[in-house]
Amino acid sequence: MPRPERCRVVITGLGPICAFGVGIQPLWSALLEGRSAIAPVRRWDASGFASNAAAELLLDTFDVKSAVPKSYRKATKVMARDIEFAVGAAQEAVRDAGIVTRATEGATPTIPPDRFGCQIGAGLIAADVDELTAALWTSRGADGNFDIAHWGETGMTNLTPLWLLKYLPNMLSCHVTIIHDCQGPSNTITCAEASAGLSCGESMRVIQRGDADVCLSGGAECRVHPMSMLRQGFARRLAATPTGVDPATITRPFAPDATGGLLGDGGGIVVLENGATAAARGAVALAEIAGFGASQCFCPDTIGVEVNETGEEIAMAIAAALDDAGITADAIDAIVPFGSGIPHVDQPEAAALVSVFGSRARSIPLIQVMPFVGNCGAGAGALAIIVGAQAIRTQTLPARINTTGCTALDANVTPARAATLKNVLVVITSLGGQNAAIVLRAVA
Hints:
With about 450 residues, this protein is of the alpha/beta class. Helices cover about 30% and strands about 20% of the residues. It contains 12 helices and 14 strands.
């Protein structure tokens, strides 16, 4: 049957936020140079962790107060770091797209508020350790151990009344929509690393069905946190960081000697726009989101730490994205994979790519992101999409680092180089088994 007509959805603004800072230039420069942000953790004492390195976004690199209007600065007191990242990324994306919103006080908004949507992916926001332990300390029983009854009677009263507002996942999109007056469809997706990819897919559909002209979409997470690192360590996802080994060299996606991944802070927001709306306001379309697919892996362990080793469900998401874009596998010029460096996560993804692309999988260049900025959780997919769009925009493949000895995929170390990129595939998998695949297309 003929494919029904639908509007094109284009990316007009990029708002990455990561250990390199805010905006595409610091991130892209590092990728071109082959320079990783992964280093020993500095924000807190991680010396007792077997994995004690990550890609941190430090306070002196990004302060959320610089990303909000003066009238909104009091609200930053109830922003966890994850929320701050989303707010900073959204501000940069709006600026990059040349859109005026309510955040620019006294100016007329570019987009009518009721035509402006927002879908943002969020993770399991980890509570501030000092805040939580101060309350827990007062919840001890007569034996000195934690007592749940004391927690209910006295412990909880030592938390600020607005404490929970800092840690609800929907607070990322909540603050962004308030700041920029996005009154169109809004949603929060919490599907681990797949969150940002799924949110961009939802924004694409919102625009295509005519419910909004523009959406802010993506995801963010503060992963360099004691609780996050404990969770990922228990899930066997983190590589050890031995003394004397440069942690920037440890994350090796698809390498036969890979030992695990390392975490990072950040994510990103992109401005997705109806192509006609973008053209009418004279905006530059950086890339088109031409196709989207999603799936759920079968997880033998039932909790998503181990996923189907055949990669069948990941391949299904890729196939759905290709079909949605109206292209076949031979039209893909480059792939931005999840590429975590975690063997039991990379293996199914590699199997999926070989399943879809066959022998050609060895020659399609991969664009690696995690060796540079770590696994940013709910923000990982946003960074992958942003890097893919920038590769199309510049017709350049960034450098790859660390990986050697991979024979099934084009994943090994190489410098940055020029390339002809019309269709770039972004693949995002997750702890939990959710998958998202997006086809980015150059805009003629």
